[in-house]
Structure formats: structure tokens, C-alpha cells
Amino acid sequence: MTELVACLSSGKGTWGHVARLIKEGKWDKTFILTNEFGRQNFKAEANVEVLLIDEEKGIKELRDDIYNFLKDKIKGFEVGVNIISGSGKEHLALMSALLKMGVGMRFVALTKDGVEEI
Q1: Looking at the predicted structure, is the pLDDT value of residue 11 above 90?
Q2: Strand, coil or helix: 94
Q3: What backbone phi and psi angles, to 5 degrees, belong to 10?
């Protein structure tokens, strides 16, 4: 299908959503952006790469970290994006990094009917 890029940090109940999205979607590769707590405690399926983000950094520094992490790893022309978890700063940095890379974004979520584009 495509690659999935998902934020995984704050937000009560959001980790289960992200875990099921990873498991139930047909992703070529999944990239998770998370903090130290998420890196240590989130148990993901195989074929997942994790970018440890520093929540203390400014938004431009976060964008650059995400861009540098993903730029040689995204193989297609678009990615599935899920931002149900995380902060607005993380979301904005992710979207800015993806736009800077020139890839399209399809927002995806787990619904009662399964994984769907929103």
C-alpha cells in the first residue's frame, strides 16, 4: 500500500488506536514519532522504525529532525499520516517535514469499518 507515519505520545487512549492501525493496515513500512516514554513502552509489530523526538526542541528543529529521519526512507509519492496522538507542535512539525519532502499525505484512521482515509 504505502508507508504510515504516526505520532505517538500524549493523548489518553490513543496508543491502542495507533497499535491497531499499524496491525490492521497493509503498510509497506511504519514510522512512529514518539518521546522517550513511548520508545520504552510502546510495543509495535515488526517493520516499524521509531524516531525519538525531543519535546523540548523548537518546532523548526523538530521539523528538521523529522525531515532528516524520513527523507531517505520514504519510497513512495505519498504517505498515510495519523496524528490522533501527540501535540500540535509535533503534528505541525511532521506535516511541514513531509511537505518539505514533496510527498503527498493521506490522513488515515481506524474506524468501526477498519482502516480508512479521512
Answers
A1: no
A2: helix
A3: -85, 160
